[in-house]
Design goal:
216 residues; alpha+beta; Structural Genomics Hypothetical 15.5 Kd Protein In mrcA-pckA Intergenic Region, Chain A; 2 domains; eight-stranded mixed beta sheet
C-alpha cells in the first residue's frame, strides 16, 4: 500500500497568464493600464478587455496589427483579403517573449493607437478572467478629434474658466477630469466579461454598468 502525502501528490495544473502594459500612443504614458490576461485568450476577447480597461465605449471599428498581419472583426467587412479574423489570433501564439508587442487601433477616424507590450508571463489561478492591476489617466472623450484634439482639451482645462474650457464642457456635456481613473472599478468590470468570447450586446451592457459605477 502506497500512502500519498501532500508533497507526493502531482502538482495542480496551472494556467499561463500574460502581464501586459497598454499605453495610449501620443499621451506620454498619461493614459496607461497594466493588465493580467489568460495566454489562451484570442484578440477578439482582448478587444473587449481593452475597451473596458481603457474606458472606451466600443462605438467605432478597431483592428490589431502584429508583424505585418492585421486582425479584426469579420463583421466589419473591411474588404481587405489580408485582414484575418481576430478570433483566430491567440495571444500565446503572438506574444511569446517579454518585449513582444502588438498594436491596437480604435476608431479609424480619430485613430486612437495603443501599444500592447508583453512585460512578463506568470502562472494564474483565474484562467478565464482578466485583471487590471495598475493604471493611470482617464480615457479621452470619444470623438474629440484624436490625439490633437485631446491635447487641445488638456491645455484648455488647465484654465477652467477660460472660453476654450467652457466650449469643451458644452461640447462634451460634462467637465472632463484627466485623472478620473478608478483601478477598482476597471478591475471589477473586467471580472464580468464572459469567456471565451464577448458579444457586442454583452460588452455594451458591461461598459454601461461600468460608466455608471465610475460616475458615482
Amino acid at each position: 500500500m502506497i500512502l500519498l502525502t501532500e508533497d507526493s501528490l502531482p502538482p495542480k495544473p496551472t494556467s499561463l497568464g500574460l502581464l501586459l502594459t497598454v499605453a495610449l500612443d501620443g499621451t506620454h504614458n498619461r493614459v496607461r493600464r497594466t493588465l493580467l490576461v489568460p495566454a489562451t485568450a484570442h484578440l477578439g476577447w482582448l478587444h473587449a478587455v481593452l475597451q473596458v480597461a481603457m474606458g472606451w465605449t466600443n462605438s467605432h471599428l478597431h483592428q490589431f496589427t502584429f508583424k505585418g498581419k492585421t486582425f479584426s472583426d469579420p463583421s466589419f467587412e473591411l474588404y481587405d483579403p489580408l485582414t484575418l479574423d481576430e478570433s483566430k489570433g491567440r495571444l500565446n501564439t503572438l506574444l511569446v517573449r517579454p518585449g513582444d508587442l502588438l498594436r491596437y487601433q480604435y476608431d479609424f477616424g480619430d485613430s486612437w493607437e495603443h501599444t500592447v507590450l508583453l512585460t512578463s508571463t506568470s502562472a494564474i489561478d483565474h484562467p478565464t478572467m482578466a485583471r487590471c492591476i495598475d493604471g493611470a489617466g482617464a480615457c479621452p472623450p470619444e470623438d474629440c478629434g484624436g490625439i490633437l484634439g485631446f491635447n487641445n482639451l488638456l491645455e484648455a482645462i488647465k484654465k477652467p474658466t477660460s472660453k476654450a474650457a467652457q466650449q469643451f464642457k458644452d461640447s462634451l456635456g460634462y467637465t472632463y477630469d484627466p485623472n478620473a481613473f478608478s483601478l477598482e472599478a476597471a478591475d471589477l468590470a473586467l471580472s464580468t466579461l464572459p469567456w471565451p468570447s464577448v458579444s457586442k450586446k454583452q460588452l455594451a451592457k458591461i461598459i454601461k454598468t461600468g460608466s455608471k459605477r465610475t460616475s458615482k
